[in-house]
């Protein structure tokens, strides 16, 4: 024979289910809050990462330009050690002439 559950057993089962439901709901609320916090934090970090990568790309470009300018300056320093180059540079930029030479200026045509 089977025993018929009494009303107190049924009430205990319902209250047990009610407590279990409350705990599950509390855990789900805590989990939802944690996931929201993690999502916001991840979103902010992605934004910062993108900003840093753009900044790094700009710095890389600036580094390349600076290296090119440095190479050009080194090349110019090496050329300035050549007396013939120095003479050409003085004649062109400062309009110096040797004794007995005449300097002629040629007017450039203006384009309209």
TrEMBL record:
Keyword list, A-Z: Cell cycle, Cell division, Coiled coil, Membrane, Transmembrane, Transmembrane helix
Superkingdom, taxonomy of origin: Bacteria
Membrane-crossing segments per the record: 26-43
GO biological process terms held by the UniProt record: cell division
Family matches, as InterPro entries: DivIC, FtsL/DivIC
PANTHER family referenced in this protein's UniProt entry, alphabetically: CELL DIVISION PROTEIN DIVIC
Protein name: Cell division protein
